[in-house]
Design a protein that fits this description.
By secondary structure, the protein is mostly helical. The protein has helices at residues 2-10, 14-34, 43-62. It has one domain. The longest helix has 21 residues, at 14-34. The relative contact order is 0.06.
Length: 65
């Protein structure tokens, strides 16, 4: 299953990945407009979530052989 996903990922260009990032941004804006309570989350909690979500990708990119 993952091999098939890897083959499909290799077909994506830089433009495709950039457009995906923009679509996530706009989707997030829509969710915040629908659920404004999300904006009341304190910044330290968001920073902790940011770090937790970014540790594995950063490790895999820079340190994994």
């Amino acid at each position: 299953m993952l091999e098939g996903l890897n083959k499909k990922m290799k077909k994506l260009t830089v433009i495709d990945i950039g457009l995906t990032k923009w679509s996530v941004l706009f989707g997030t804006i829509i969710l915040v407009k629908i659920f404004p309570q999300v904006l009341r989350i304190h910044y330290p909690i968001l920073i902790i979530l940011l770090v937790l979500c970014s540790v594995k990708p950063v490790y895999d990119f820079w340190f994994k052989k």
